[in-house]
Design goal:
CATH architecture: Roll
Number of helices: 2
Number of strands: 5
Shape: flat
Helix content: 25-40%
Strand content: 35-45%
Distance between the termini: 40 Å
Largest sheet: 5 strands, antiparallel
Order of helices and strands: EHEEEEH
CATH superfamily: Hotdog Thioesterase
CATH topology: Thiol Ester Dehydrase, Chain A
Number of domains: 1
Length: 141
């Protein structure tokens, strides 16, 4: 399938930081928005950009993250609203590169680059199921 992914396409999402998206080791009680949670939300912003603008015609296609290069630059508390931004900056076949950033109401809290690969879900699942079977056989040895 040929995809017409357009450079410069953008997506923006607003979410509130939830208590299950925080670190648990800094001090007792709710802590700060964790780096893995921020990266996860950045990835989802990129995924939705592809899915909603370019892959919506066929539900058998989606994308998976392959590269993250992210800087987490400021702490954000539970309950704060954050804005996640993604822009397509490169396309090479089914490989798509993004510029990403996240900010709260006071400052930028993260930025970097992310890469996703467009997949055919049934084919991906077929390969995955085969790997699960092979790993299961390996573990039985």
């Amino acid at each position: 399938m040929d995809f017409e992914i357009k450079l410069g396409s953008k997506n923006e999402r607003r979410i509130k930081v939830n208590h299950n998206q925080t670190t648990s080791f800094l001090w007792e009680g709710e802590n700060v928005f964790s780096t893995p949670s921020m990266i996860s939300e950045m990835e989802e912003t990129c995924r939705l950009l592809l899915k909603e603008q370019f892959l919506k015609v066929d539900s058998e296609w989606d994308s998976v993250g392959t590269v993250v290069d992210i800087n987490h630059t400021a702490a954000t508390p539970v309950g704060a609203e954050i804005i996640l931004k993604a822009e397509i900056i490169g396309v090479d076949g089914r490989r798509v590169q993004f510029k990403v950033s996240t900010e709260d109401n006071l400052e930028q809290i993260g930025e970097g680059k992310h890469e996703r690969f467009i997949i055919n879900i049934p084919k991906f699942k077929e390969k995955f199921d085969l790997k699960v079977k092979r790993l299961d056989e390996f573990q039985k040895r």
